[in-house]
């Protein structure tokens, strides 16, 4: 069905998208991003899927954007065609949580794609970076914004202005990654296990939780707290809120209806 990605359902309630352009170390090109968006939207609309894992290979999550595709573009072509705007669709259209499982290279656009996900897991030896300065340009898919929010202005400025890379261990200690793992096998097990845990909760509550956490990145604290409270109130209209609280009071396991 796809040329540049593979999809699977490795655990109950979990969808997995694997970038699969091995000869180019999963370099991101427009056809790959188009397939990725299609697959993510399919999982997002699937009633059997509650969480998504996005990964690459042990050698590379995604080694960057496809330079051969970008190099010949003119300003007018890039601007009028909104080049790479579609890369950010997963941040605006996908309501279910996405876990990035990063091994090997995650450079340039690959780093930006990982940062777009809701949770980032990586191996200790994963290789992150925004090396666009070396090509005479700057990050174009949110790297300067999301990396700065994750690690602070001084550290992000140093990395972006020098083009230096950073390791998975550094990603973990700086707060870019939620968890780091010694091996690729442990990384994938950890990502799938977390996705399966999330999929075991109320789909309504999970989607609401993702929404309110993401709002914290856009709103001032007072506005964010008020937004959170409104979403909290709205969940009292869901069947799962009644089921969850009743099950807790009765010391039983909740049987979610996802309604």
Automatic annotation (TrEMBL):
Q: Which GO terms describe its cellular component?
A: mitochondrion
- What is the main EC category here? lyase
Which Gene Ontology MF annotations are present? enoyl-CoA hydratase activity
One GO term under biological process is: fatty acid beta-oxidation
Q: Which InterPro entries match?
A: ClpP/crotonase-like_dom_sf, Enoyl-CoA_hyd/isom_CS, Enoyl-CoA_hydra/iso, Enoyl-CoA_hydra_C
Record Gene3D superfamilies: 2-enoyl-CoA Hydratase, Chain A, domain 1, Lyase 2-enoyl-coa Hydratase, Chain A, domain 2
Q: What is its EC number?
A: 4.2.1.17
**Alphabetically ordered keywords of this record:** Fatty acid metabolism, Lipid metabolism, Lyase
One Pfam family in the UniProt entry = ECH_1
Q: Which family does it belong to?
A: Belongs to the enoyl-CoA hydratase/isomerase family.
Give the PANTHER family listed for this entry.
ENOYL-COA HYDRATASE, MITOCHONDRIAL (PTHR11941:SF54), ENOYL-COA HYDRATASE-RELATED (PTHR11941)
Protein name in the entry = Probable enoyl-CoA hydratase, mitochondrial
The record lists the organism as Coleophoma cylindrospora
């Amino acid at each position: 069905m796809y040329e540049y990605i593979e999809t699977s359902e490795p655990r109950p309630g979990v969808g997995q998208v694997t970038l699969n352009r091995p000869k180019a170390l999963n370099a991101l090109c427009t056809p790959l991003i188009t397939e990725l968006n299609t697959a993510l939207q399919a999982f997002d609309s699937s009633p059997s899927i509650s969480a998504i894992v996005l990964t690459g290979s042990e050698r590379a999550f995604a080694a960057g954007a496809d330079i051969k595709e970008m190099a010949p573009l003119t300003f007018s072509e890039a601007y009028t065609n909104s080049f790479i705007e579609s890369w950010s669709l997963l941040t605006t259209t996908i309501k279910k949580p996405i876990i990035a499982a990063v091994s090997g290279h995650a450079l340039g656009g690959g780093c930006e794609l990982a940062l777009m996900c809701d949770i980032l897991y990586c191996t200790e030896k994963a290789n992150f970076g925004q090396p666009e300065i070396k090509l005479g340009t700057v990050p174009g898919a949110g790297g300067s914004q999301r990396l700065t929010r994750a690690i602070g202005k001084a550290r992000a400025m140093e990395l972006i202005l020098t083009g230096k890379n950073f390791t998975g261990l550094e990603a973990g200690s700086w707060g870019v990654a939620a968890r780091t793992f010694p091996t690729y096998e442990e990384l994938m097990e950890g990502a799938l296990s977390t996705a399966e845990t999330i999929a075991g909760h109320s789909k309504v509550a999970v989607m609401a939780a993702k929404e309110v956490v993401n709002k914290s990145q856009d709103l001032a604290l007072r506005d964010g707290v008020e937004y959170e409270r409104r979403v909290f109130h709205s969940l009292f209209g869901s069947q799962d809120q009644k089921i969850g609280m009743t099950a807790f009071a009765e010391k039983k396991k909740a049987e979610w209806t996802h309604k």
